[in-house]
């Protein structure tokens, strides 16, 4: 077996549309995928975990990590992890929205780097999207580049990890189109910030997703309450 066929990549897989497409791209790039999912006290934690497990089955991923991060609920400061703060439903806000979880992607990438070093992986895939990130500061090219530099400085000399962000400059409509090309099972993905049975259709994440499908002239295969 050639070394190329055994290249490993760690995919941060939330169960959402973006991270799922990024994982399919990693497989298409020829990597053996190890999937990582974080339970961090988010409102839709159980539903996201189900999506993660379904997608791992779809991708025939044999090795996966389900990591619990309880301190995000202790910190609060985000509508996703503090149930006393309402998830906004009035459209995308200006500036950094209340759904931003403080330094979430930085923490996710740090933990994933530890797994990558242990597993001998040379790549980490994360489905950050700069254009449709709702103003999140941890979804930019600059942030990812700085995290990559810090991770490689803070690991062993023979550890070399690339952080790949194949969706960072795509719009939601382009993400839908790319997912269709790769036969991504979008019916197994979950994007809603509020609900776990049927997607609400009105939170920022649902709005971005639905608009992406509309602009791509496709029908979203999941059920929505508000539609």
From TrEMBL:
Pathway assigned to this chain's UniProt record: Purine metabolism; 7-cyano-7-deazaguanine biosynthesis
Superkingdom: Bacteria
Annotated InterPro entries: QueC, Rossmann-like_a/b/a_fold
Assigned EC number: 6.3.4.20
Binding site for ATP: 13-23
Keyword terms, alphabetized: ATP-binding, Ligase, Metal-binding, Nucleotide-binding, Queuosine biosynthesis, Zinc
GO terms assigned for molecular function: ATP binding; ligase activity, forming carbon-nitrogen bonds; zinc ion binding
Binding site for Zn(2+): 192, 200, 203, 206
Presence of the UniProt keyword Ligase in the record: yes
Cofactor (UniProt): Zn(2+)
Catalysis: reaction(s): 7-carboxy-7-carbaguanine + NH4(+) + 2 ATP = 7-cyano-7-carbaguanine + 2 AMP + 2 diphosphate + 2 H(+)
Name of this chain's protein: 7-cyano-7-deazaguanine synthase
Organism: Arcobacter acticola
Gene: queC
């Amino acid at each position: 077996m050639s070394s190329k066929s055994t290249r490993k990549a760690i995919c941060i897989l939330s169960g959402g549309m973006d991270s799922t497409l990024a994982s399919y791209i990693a497989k298409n790039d020829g990597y053996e995928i190890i999937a990582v999912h974080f339970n961090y006290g988010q409102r839709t934690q159980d539903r996201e975990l189900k999506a993660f497990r379904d997608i791992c089955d779809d991708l025939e991923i044999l090795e996966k990590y389900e990591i619990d991060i309880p301190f995000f609920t202790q910190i609060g400061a985000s509508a996703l992890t503090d149930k006393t703060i309402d998830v906004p439903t009035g459209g995308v806000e200006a500036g950094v929205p209340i759904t931003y979880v403080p330094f979430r992607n930085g923490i996710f990438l740090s933990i994933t780097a530890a797994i990558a070093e242990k597993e001998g992986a040379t790549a980490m895939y994360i489905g950050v999207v700069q254009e449709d990130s709702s103003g999140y500061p941890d979804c930019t090219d600059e942030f990812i580049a700085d995290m990559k530099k810090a991770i490689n400085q803070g690991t062993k000399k023979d550890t070399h990890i690339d952080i790949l962000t194949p969706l960072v400059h795509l719009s939601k409509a382009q993400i839908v189109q790319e997912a269709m090309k790769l036969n991504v099972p979008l019916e197994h993905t979950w994007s809603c910030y509020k609900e776990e049975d049927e997607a609400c259709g009105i939170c920022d994440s649902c709005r971005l997703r639905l608009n992406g499908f509309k602009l791509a002239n496709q029908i979203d295969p999941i059920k929505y309450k508000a539609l």
